Amino acid sequence: MPSPLRNSPAPSTRRCSSSERVMWITADRVFYAGLLGEPTMHTKGAIVLYVSVEAPLRIRINGGEWQTTDVAVVQPYVPYQIATEGRHVLNILVEPETVDMARLPDVLCANGPVEAPEFAARVKQVHAQLAAAGRELDVQPTDFDVMFFGESLPVRQLDARIANVLERIKSDPSAQAAAEACAAEAKLSFSRFLHLFKEEVGAPFRSFRTWKRARSLLHHVNSDSNLVYVALDIGYPDSTHFSHSIRQTYGLKPRDIFAGSRKLRIIHATAPSGLIPV
Question: End-to-end CA distance of the chain, in Å?
Fold first, then answer.
């Protein structure tokens, strides 16, 4: 069956109408087009890229000066604030443990404003294609990098013991994966495990686990489920812990995230792809 993204008319990317609000989630990447929340401080465990839609972005990295740009990049676990008068944004998340950080394209290596008009145009074009395709999609996770970056990103080579632990956490971020149990599974002492984990992954075990649990919320943001049930389902012991963790990660309370995502279409596409790279 031909891909619905081929030869589709591209809607305007000056703003995100209801039909253009979309989030494509894979195990290791996210693309989001929609509302941007309040410019509160928050921290994500991914490489974060923003592209302006209607108005320039204003970004403040780790408490520094506010800067204006059309493209911004934030490295993993770096606190930042982002704002735009246009209220809408295009956003990409790349999980750092999946890529060789030393061999990434230049746009992914920055930390702050970036001059990247060609990249911005490409992201807007892909967004237009995804929005025009509606619900009839023919995409799979391996398409993501080629569509947005023009090539597959270089893969990080991990110690097999740590790779197994990562897979366990990523496959079930709601599980109470204690570092001690993971160290025993990897047949390492507790201290050696924590050191090797941070060396291989680039983040402490606790920070990584916290991010993956918060990231899993993205699969539920347009559901009608009660927030208490969502919190328990993704592994938070209570609503207070849930609200605090989500606000630290996304800069918004869970109820505000859900309120802003009511018209968001989420793509969980895994079918074989017939896409033509941009």
Answer: 19
Q: Cβ distance 54 to 88 under 8 Å?
A: yes
Domains of the chain: 18-155+263-267 (2.60.120.10), 160-259 (1.10.10.60)
pTM over 0.85: yes
DSSP letter at 253 equals -
- CA distance linking residue 260 with residue 249, whole number of Å: 16
**E strands in the chain:** 22-25, 29-35, 47-52, 57-61, 67-69, 71-74, 80-84, 88-94, 112-114, 265-267
Q: What is the pLDDT of residue 66?
A: 97
Query: In this predicted model, what pLDDT tens digit does every residue of 207-265 receive, in sequence order?
Result: 999 999 999 999 999 888 889 999 989 999 888 999 999 999 999 899 999 988 888 99
